[in-house]
């Protein structure tokens, strides 16, 4: 596989009935400081979708893991809420990382935004 494998992950994650972070906001403290518009811009991978090798992802159920790099043999389990790095803007990804730090009480390089 080439180093570009994570770049093409979006093409391997087709969405039929796309769910977004807005649909699961109430389930995750990590998402509380984001606006509805921002949450709508965060598509969730569907159950059973394979994670691309070397792709960057965030599992909303595991903020301690924050952003992780997939090994290539993982799939999204039923009920798991995963966001692919290449499907959100760099700014939103950075905010998600900081929100994970905030939920865990870790210091971030940049302050969190106030809750909406």
Structure description:
The protein is an alpha+beta fold and 116 residues long. It has one domain. The protein is built from 2 helices and 3 strands; from the N terminus they run αβββα.
pLDDT < 50 stretches: 1-12
**For the residues shown, what is the average pLDDT?**
83
Order of helices and strands: HEEEH
Please state the overall shape, judged from the principal axes of the Cα atoms. globular
Structurally, how many domains make up the residues?
A: 1
What structural class should be given to the helix and strand makeup?
A: alpha+beta
- Percentage of helical residues? 10-25%
What is the assembly state of the chains in this entry?
A: single chain
Q: Name the beta content range.
A: 5-15%
Number of helices: 2
**Distance separating the two termini:** 42 Å
Largest sheet: 3 strands, antiparallel
Report the C-alpha radius of gyration, rounded. 14 Å
Strand order of the largest sheet: 2-1-3
Total strand segments: 3
